[in-house]
Automatic annotation (TrEMBL):
GO terms for biological process: methylation. This is Class I SAM-dependent methyltransferase. SUPFAM superfamilies: S-adenosyl-L-methionine-dependent methyltransferases (SSF53335). Keywords: Methyltransferase, Transferase. GO terms for molecular function: methyltransferase activity.
Length: 263
């Protein structure tokens, strides 16, 4: 279920997303009896799936990864890289696995679809996630869907649970950033066409640029200190969900409902 995408990929491209997943979702993976992650639409080469396994196992040693691709030739090309904990399967948004995964990562996939198709894809993928379990405090599986540039310097993703979207994360290599709104070109498909006056994501990036400009004196201490100061200013008006430990990584996470497009 889905369409074949360009499949371009590069080693280490998804490092920012992977580090965030390990930090934020690692506890959920560790508590699962058999933590399963899916790299959906890994592309013409299997590097991102291989790297995801390594990074997840640093946080959850029992994690397994299955790379799922809709193009059969890509699955065949990837299978020589399979090993303990890493497999490759043919499929799409239906995620054809008997077990509900605790993580689905879909990077640079929906960007090549129409905006009108995003909600349906999200719904199908969220329905495949491991369910929440109030008895244990588990919030269930996590879908991470977003877009990055070719070498992973700029990345924006949406995190969704079985109930739907939760947060939006902006992540960047601070040394290459001129202003926060540079990240607009990497907004996921659900938001990229909404970066116009009157839409929440446009207001957020406008306020972020203003906070960045006001934090210019901190640039003498480095781009990281300027970013931290700008994000701290943002917290007065926007529901930032993380703290300095993540800000230092060149990240900021905001609740989805405050950036969600107007109907």
């Amino acid at each position: 279920m889905g369409s074949v995408t360009r499949g371009t990929t590069h080693p280490n491209r998804l490092r920012r997303m992977d580090r965030w997943i390990a930090a934020v979702h690692g506890r959920e993976l560790r508590r699962a009896a058999d933590p399963l992650a899916v790299d959906l639409g890994y592309g013409a080469a299997p590097w991102t799936a291989v790297e995801l396994l390594v990074r997840l196992r640093a946080a959850a040693p029992g994690a397994r990864v299955v790379g799922v691709e809709i193009e059969p030739a890509r699955v065949a090309a990837a299978r020589p890289y399979a090993r303990e904990g890493l497999a490759f399967r043919h499929g799409g948004f239906e995620v054809p696995l008997p077990q509900r995964p605790h993580l689905i990562r879909a990077a640079n996939v929906l960007r090549q679809y129409d905006e009108a198709e995003v909600a349906g894809a999200w719904e199908r993928l969220c329905a495949r996630l491991a369910p929440a379990d109030p008895a244990t405090g588990s919030r269930g599986g996590l879908l991470v869907e977003g877009t990055c540039d070719e070498i992973g310097r700029r990345h924006v993703w949406v995190a969704l649970g079985p109930e739907g979207p939760r947060t939006v994360t902006f992540a960047t290599r601070l040394g290459s950033l001129e202003r926060p709104s540079d990240l607009a070109e990497r907004l996921p498909k659900a938001l990229i066409h909404r970066n116009v006056p009157g839409e929440p994501v446009h207001a957020f990036l406008r306020d972020f640029d203003r906070a960045w400009a006001a934090a210019a004196p901190y640039a003498s201490y480095g781009a990281r200190q300027r970013w931290i100061r700008a994000v701290r200013t943002l917290t007065a008006d926007w529901p930032v969900t993380d703290g300095p430990a993540r800000w230092r990584q060149g990240e900021v996470t905001v609740r989805w409902e405050t950036l969600a497009p107007h109907a």
